[in-house]
Design brief:
With 163 residues, this protein is an alpha/beta fold. The protein is built from six helices and five strands. Helix 2 links the parallel strand 2 and strand 3. Bound molecules: 4'-phosphopantetheine.
Amino acid sequence: MRRGMCPGTFDPVTSGHLDIIERAAGLLDELVVAVALSPDKGGGPLFSIDERCELIRAATGHLPNVSVRPFDTLLVDFASELDATVIIKGLRAVTDFEREFQMAQLNYRLVPDVETMFIMAIPEYMYLSSSAVKEIARHGGSVAGLVPENVSEALAERLARSR
Ligand code: PNS
């Protein structure tokens, strides 16, 4: 039984994340989407950890071997706790490479038994990021197709409340 994890901040989950999750789920028996608390990222997340988890759960309901878990520890410690042997990350452009390479090297140094593997983003989502989605939504632009429908609704609601 091969269990993997797909970690990230997911503030919020995008169609690009979802594509990587779907493709990773097809390669593994079980996939845990590991949602990091990341309290300091980008001036603090827009959605709470519970909200981010719920948005991913709703968007991955069609994937029976996918579960969603929050964590606030070292990624490799959470992998050991879950008995996950592979960390799956999405790679968009070359700009992702240096940071991902560093994280993969450090994680390997900490726990060599856990392998990091990368799935390339499809061209349609190469440019997509949670922060770009939030910026578009904040300025009233359409995020249709860039995020799952439930996330689009949650963004509209959250940003209307903060106006
Ligand atoms: O979506 P992100 O913000 O690029 O994901 C980064 C994440 C959450 C995978 C990374 O920050 C992480 O693994 N955080 C957990 C703490 C940890 O293990 N840090 C050391 C990594 S070298």
